[in-house]
Amino acid sequence: MGLLTDSIDLIAALALLLSLVAVAWPFLFYPLILRLLPTKAEQPAAGPPPSASLLFCAYNEAAAMPEKLANLAMLKARHPALEILAFDDGSSDETAALIEARGDLVTLLRGPGRSGKAHGMKLLAARAQGDVLIFTDANVMLDPDAIDNLLARYADPDIGGVLGSLHYMGDGESATASVGSLYWRIEERLKDEESRTGNVLGADGSIFSIRRALYPDFPDSVLDDLTVSMAVVFAGKRLVKAKDVIARERLVAARGDEYRRKVRIAARAWHTHSHLRPQLRRMRGVDRFKYASRKIVRWFGGLFILTGIVAAGTLAMRISPMLYMVGGLTGVFILWRGLRSRGGPFAAAVDIVLAYFATLQGVAKAMTGRTVTIWNPAKSR
C-alpha cells in the first residue's frame, strides 16, 4: 500500500512539473533557447525594389472603411505604382459601396455571398500583377513608410516573405484588451528572435507579404495567413520579420468576442496544420522545433493547465484535506472575482485561462472534422 501511495505521489508531482514546464515553454524556455542560436545575416543585392500589390478582404467593415481608405490613399500617394485590390465577402452594410466609390484607388472584387477570406484572397492573388503580394486586414492601418521598408527587404534574393510588426491600440479599455496586448508584445518578440535566427514560423493576417511566384494552391477551409506564409519556408526561402514595417489595429475589448475569435482561429489553425503536415515533416530540424514550440505546445496549453490542476489537487489532498479545500476555494474565488471584474489582476488571470481554453476548444473542434470558413468582425473592436 505504501509503494502504491508513493507511486501516486510521484506521478502527480511529475505531471504537475511537466504541466508547468509546458505552459511556460513558449514564453520562457523557448525564447531563452532562441537567444542561444546564431544570427543568420541577410545578403541584400543591388537593384530597384520589386513592384507590389496590396490585398485585403472585408465583411461588414463600413465603420472602419473611411479610415482604411484614407490610409490607402496616403500609401498610394507615396507609391503611385502600388496596386490595391479588395474582396467584399457579401457584406450586408455599406462596405462594398464605400470601396467601390474609390474605384480610382482600389479595385473591388465582389463575392457571390459568404465564401470566406481564404477564397477571397485566392481570387485577389490570381488577379494581382505585383512581384510582391502584401496582405493586410480591412481594419488595419499601415504607417507611411511601411511599404518602403517592406520592399527593401526583398533586396536579398533568399528572402521569400516579409512580416511586419503589429501594434495594438486601446490596450487599456478592459482586462481582455490588456491581456491581448501583453500576449501580442510577447509574440512580436518571439517573431523577432525567430527571424534573426532564420525563419519565422507563420504569419498573421495583419501585415505580411510574399513573392507572388511562391503563392500556393490551397482549399478554402484552411487559415490562409498560415498556409501562404509557410509556403515560403517550404520553398526553401526565408520568412523574416521587419520591425520597421508597422501596422496598427484596435484590440477586441469584450471577453465574449475574444473567446469566439480564439476558438475560430484555433479551429482553422489545427485544420491547416493537418493540411500542411506532409510538408511540415520535411522542414529542417530547427524549423520543426520552432513550429512545435510556438504553435503546437500553445494549442494544447488548456490541456496542460487541466492536468496541472488535477495533479496539484491530488498532491494537496495527500498532504492535507484542509489544504485541498483552501486551494479549491481560492480558485473559485479568483474565477468569481475575475468574471465579475473589467480590470485588475483577477480579471487578467481569468482572461489568460479563458484564452487557453478557447484555443483548446477550437483545436478539439477541428479534430472532430469541423472548421470555420467565414468570419464576423468583433463588435467590441
Automatic annotation (TrEMBL):
Residues 53-215 form the Glycosyltransferase 2-like domain. Keywords: Membrane, Transmembrane, Transmembrane helix. Coiled coil: none annotated. SUPFAM superfamilies: Nucleotide-diphospho-sugar transferases (SSF53448). The keyword Transmembrane applies. It holds the Pfam family Glycos_transf_2. The chain crosses the membrane at residues 12-33, 296-316, 322-339, 346-364. This is Glycosyltransferase 2-like domain-containing protein. It comes from Sphingobium fuliginis (strain ATCC 27551).
